[in-house]
Amino acid sequence: MVRDILVVYKKNFEAVHDIALESVKKILDNLVEGDQISVGYTARETVGRSDFIDPDLVIVLGGDGTLTSIAHSVDDSTPVMGVNSHPRDKDDEGSFGFYMGSDPDNFQNDIKMVLNGEALVNILPRLQAEIETTSGNKIRCDPALNDLLIANTHQYQPSKYRIIRGNIDSKQNSSGVLFSTFLGQGAWFRHVADIEGKKFPIDEISNQYLIVARELPRSDRTNDGSYWDWTSETTAIVSDMHRGYVVCDGWDETHFTRGAKINVNLKGPPLKLLTFRNTILERVNQWIS
Predict the structure, then answer these.
(1) Could you give the CA distance from residue 102 to residue 112 in angstroms, rounded to a whole number?
(2) In degrees rounded to 5, what are phi and psi of residue 168?
(3) pTM, rounded to two decimals
């Protein structure tokens, strides 16, 4: 039963987000007065992992960037409800809000669906990277809902590494290795890897991920899975870079040095995302077979 709610909102001094927050707060205040729920509020810039321990529901008010920037702090048992504070269908400058199942206009009905247990529950897999340093220490990076990049911290220098997965064991010089969940294979991944028109079996979506070596020389783009692949196996990257980093969902960076080994797979804690009028997969059915 949903009782304690945390609202994480985008605060960048744009009036449209403040108006959305006031609209959502007014609706929630009525539910608080009716003793149905208790609600806490915090800006995205000040939220921390400890804030997500007690709530029964996390409401993210903003856009996809707001959701992906805080989702790594949410465990696999706490449902997340995304509310698009600036929908693009009302303003060309707004957010597309792929992960945002609600908006201010629909919020009153949607939150009632949540309280009544009628929301659609989407279980979304997440990528997990673990760095093993040359001294044997292990550092687990934040789980990535969209994509994960391993590259040289100096982007003007090549990313040098050894890639190991299954029968693959290859040294590469590229612009870094990009990993993506099925849902994360948006514009960036599709620009790096020409996979337009490719469809994915629905029974593989939750346990396989995409990988591509960015700007790998054409002579090295073999068909053995070392250039790009759709796989369930763990990929190991052994660094030959003086300084490198793992970037999760374009936000948090975890640094490593030469000799470090980074294991990447789809074993991150899944995210429980609520939607209302359609499921997440229904929004991308053109890519599903």
Answers:
(1) 12
(2) -90, 130
(3) 0.92
Whole-number Å distance between alpha carbons of 276 and 284: 16
Report yes or no on 241 lying in a domain.
yes
* CATH label of the domain that carries residue 146: 2.60.200.30
The CA–CA distances, whole Å, from 74 to 13, 21, 56, 108, 142 equal: 26, 21, 11, 24, 10
How far is C-alpha 200 from the chain's CA centre? 19
**Closest of 108, 238, 261 to residue 172, by C-alpha:** 238
The tens digit of pLDDT for each residue in 30-78 reads 999 888 889 999 998 888 888 888 899 999 999 998 999 899 999 999 9
With 0-12 CB in 10 A as exposed, 13-18 as middle and 19+ as buried, what is 116?
Answer: exposed
Whether the per-residue pLDDT at 124 is higher than 70: the answer is: yes
- Structural domain including 88 reads 4-118
Q: Residue 35: give its domain's CATH number.
A: 3.40.50.10330
- Residue-level pLDDT at 94: 65
Where would I find the H helices in the chain?
Answer: 15-33, 64-71, 107-115, 187-192
SS3 of residue 18 by DSSP: helix
Q: Is residue 281 part of a domain?
A: no
Residue 68 backbone dihedrals phi, psi, to 5 degrees: -70, -25
